[in-house]
Each structure stands twice: as structure tokens, then as C-alpha cells.
């Protein structure tokens, strides 16, 4: 899904409709890229959200749990990679994510790098926590929050990461929030 929507990420629905009509599959990214070359992505290429989720999955698999220091090293290494990208190997990240990762690169620990941002990045990459700890609600929620704190300190971001990782918290319905 992320790769399908990547070429039109950031476009308002009406504008995407003008450019592509009803989107039912992969679209020609060059159509939207003509208007904003910085957002041009190859057909089928996923965004920073999936890239960060893969970094979280890698952390969980290699460490057997969430390890903030390991996750921080992955994000930092990607930011420092020799790449033609604007932020190392990271793809199209937002300013708050970049600021948090720069703090990691500059030596802040993962427990102090997050910003008071209510952005969706912490939630967008939380799926591996739910998959890795399927059936273990406490571990899934704890991991979703811990990985979120690396970049986001706003409780709204952390709650939504937890909801996504577990699916639904007892007595809490995301759509009612």
C-alpha cells in the first residue's frame, strides 16, 4: 500500500484526482514529479514510513526485543550514508524526524532525541511491534511507545503507535478519539 501511494503522497485528494483520475494501481510517478521534482519516486518504491518500519523490524529480529541504542544506530547510519538523497539514505522524511535523527548523530541518546511532535511517524512504523509481539499486548504496546519516543514525545503520537501495534486498547477505540 505504501508503494502504491508513494507517488501521490502529500497531494490533496482533488489534485491527485485531477492528475490520475481514480487511483486503482501503480501510477506514473513522473506526472506528479513534474510539479514537484523533489517528491519524484520510482514506481513501486516505498516511502520513509516503510523504510523506518523495516529498521524497527531489523532491530526486533536482531535484538529479540526493542533496543533503543541499536535502533538509533540504524537511523543514524542511514542519515550518514553516502547517498544522493537529501538526508543520507532516508527517503523523503519530515523536518521533525530529521531533527530527532540529527540529535542522535550528534550524540544524544534515544531516550532524549524525540521532539514534542504529534506527527504520525511513530505510528507509521509501529506495525512490526504488533507483528513481532503478536498476542503479547503489553510487549507490543511497550515496544510501540519506546520506538516512538526516539522521534516523538507527544502523547498523541505514542498512543496512536500503541493502538496500531496492538490493534485496539481495552476501552479505547481509535475512531472515537
Write the layout of secondary structure elements.
Layout: H1 2-5, H2 13-20, H3 29-33, H4 48-63, H5 68-80, H6 95-105, H7 121-124, H8 127-132, H9 137-149, H10 155-166
Helix pairs in contact: 4-5, 5-6, 9-10
Plain-language structure description:
The chain has 177 residues and is mainly α. Helices cover 52% and strands 0% of the residues. It has 10 helices and no strands. The radius of gyration is 17 Å and the shape is globular. It starts with a helix and ends in an 11-residue tail after the last helix. The relative contact order is 0.11.
Quote the distance from N terminus to C terminus: 24 Å
Total number of beta strands: 0
Radius of gyration: 17 Å
Helix-strand topology string: HHHHHHHHHH
Helix and strand content put the structural class at mainly alpha
- Shape annotation: globular
- Mean pLDDT, as a whole number? 88
Question: Low-confidence runs (pLDDT<50, min 5 residues)?
Answer: 173-177
With helices defined by DSSP (H or I, 4 residues minimum), what is the helix count?
Answer: 10
Helicity, as a percent range: 40-55%
Largest sheet: none
Q: Strand share of the residues?
A: under 5%
